[in-house]
Amino acid sequence: MSIHHAAADDGPPGTPWPTDWMRALLGLCTLRALESGPSYGYAIIAELEEAGLGVVKGGTLYPLLTRYEGAGWVETEWRAGTSGPGRKYFSLTTEGRAELERHRRGWQQFAALTCRFLASEPDQTAVSPSTDHERQPRP
Amino acid sequence: MSSTQPNESWIEEFILALRLREVRGDAIGDATAVVRGHIADSGQDAHEAFGDPSFYAKQLDLPRQPNLRPGSPVIMGPAISLTGLLVFAQSIPAVFAGSPMEVSLPQLLLFALPCALVLALPYYFNLGVRHLWVFAVAFFVVIGAGIGAGLFDPDRGFPAWLNLQPLWFAIGSGAAMLAASVWSVVDDLRTPQDPLPGPTGPAPAPTGIVARLIGTIPHFLMPLIALAFLVSELRMP
Predict the structure, then answer these.
(1) How many separate helices (H) and strands (E) can be counted in chain A?
(2) Spatial contact of A60 and A26, defined as CB atoms under 8 Å apart
(3) Is B33 on the interface with A (CB under 8 A)?
(4) What is the reported pLDDT for B204?
(5) What is the ipTM for the molecules in this complex?
(6) What pLDDT score does B143 carry?
(7) B62 in contact with chain A, both atoms CB, cutoff 8 A
């Protein structure tokens, strides 16, 4: 998977988002990019980049869109360009919108849990596995 | 920035990779048009935007429509023709000599080798297209089997494992060759043409029937070789 990362706004300049994060979220973000209406590959990539999510390569995006088309989440339509080749527009189907909603709710819950956990104070009384191991009675 | 020549080379490799995966022509035309549109929009080279063409073709995972599958007419036709030619070539000299058709066991096994290579073609065809030495090895195995079969001929003192009446084998093998060739031609003409139409342009004109018939001539290669063999035997004093 090829994703060029944008610098994180809150992080040190030039710090890229870890590849794994975008790999996990590209599908959801792609569905979100199609929420407002039909769009084509390069416009989706530009929208994700503009949102600060990094630069996604065509070689990564189109196989994903093809899978979504096979799953019935997106449908396609060719529109002839005024100059140059035509463009393949992707749009969400009813199933695609339902899938977007389901994943969005799930992600929001997961992200909230993660944020809460990351912001919490470390529990000094927690028993680490190594400590626990040390407390095992010797044979 | 994109430049035409590397992009066209990339697209050619991409089409070949999809063809080898036996993707339908219209799906290939669609995927190719997406690549062209994307590189026009982004200004990137095809390799920069899509990476290795074979890997991208695999990643797309487009639906396949396999033709070159084991047991299909594309494979069975040539396999039957080749077997027929081998039997014909063995039986005709015996017919003219008025002697039985004798075949030694090593000969029989060596005759079976080229037929097995044809039947196994679906398993190594893609590899052969990517690495031509695979086809070269198969070709030399066939030639070697032919030479080897001559060396193990019962005329050279090897015990005859089969002792057969040659006339019926000559007629049967000739008929089998012709039938297999006609079967291949009919299958060829019945198989829908699979051009690569662009999604927005007009569909390519279908190939005319004359051109399609000319394209079926190679199916008669084995009967033509057999005919040449028969003529040469007739001319021999």
Answers:
(1) 5, 5
(2) yes
(3) yes
(4) 65
(5) 0.77
(6) 86
(7) yes
Q: Which of B50-59, B73-82, B163-172, B224-233 has the highest mean pLDDT?
A: B50-59
The domains of chain A, with CATH numbers, are 19-116 (1.10.10.10)
The pLDDT value recorded for residue B25 is 85
Please tell me if residue B30 touches chain A, with a CB cutoff of 8 Å.
Answer: yes
Alpha-carbon distance of B226 to B234, in angstroms, equals 12
Q: Does B206 touch chain A (CB under 8 A)?
A: no
**Which residue type, as a one-letter code, is found at position A104?**
R
Q: How many CB pairs under 8 A join A and B?
A: 66
Is the per-residue pLDDT at B190 higher than 50?
A: yes
> Under an 8 A CB cutoff, do A86 and B199 touch?
yes
Q: B interface mutation test: which of A1, A3, A62 has the most B CBs within 10 A?
A: A62
Alpha carbons B72 and B65: distance in angstroms, whole number: 13
**What confidence score (pLDDT) does residue B201 get?**
63
Give the span between the Cα atoms of A39 and B225, in whole angstroms.
59
Higher pLDDT, A136 or B131: B131
The pLDDT value recorded for residue B210 is 78
What are the backbone angles phi and psi of residue A35, rounded to the nearest 5°? Answer: -65, -35
CB-CB under 8 Å, B199 with A88: yes
Burial of B4-24, coded b for 16+ CB within 10 Å and e otherwise, reads eeebeebbebbbbbbbbbbbb
Task: Please tell me which residue of chain B has the smallest CA distance to A65.
Answer: B60
Judge whether residue B147 has pLDDT over 90: no
What whole-number distance in Å separates Cα of residue B236 and Cα of residue B234? Answer: 6
Handedness of CA A90, A92, A95, A100 (dihedral sign): positive
The tally of CA atoms less than 13 A away on the side-chain side of residue B150 is: 6
Residue A139: pLDDT over 60: no
Alpha-carbon gap: B72 to the closest alpha carbon of chain A (Å): 28
B53 and B17 Cβ atoms separated by less than 8 Å? yes
In this predicted model, what pLDDT tens digit does every residue of A24-35 receive, in sequence order?
999 999 999 999
Residues of A in contact with B59 (CB under 8 A): 59, 63
- Indicate the pLDDT class of residue A8, thresholds 50, 70 and 90: very low
Question: Exposed, middle or buried: residue A43 (CB in 10 Å: 0-12, 13-18, 19+)?
Answer: middle
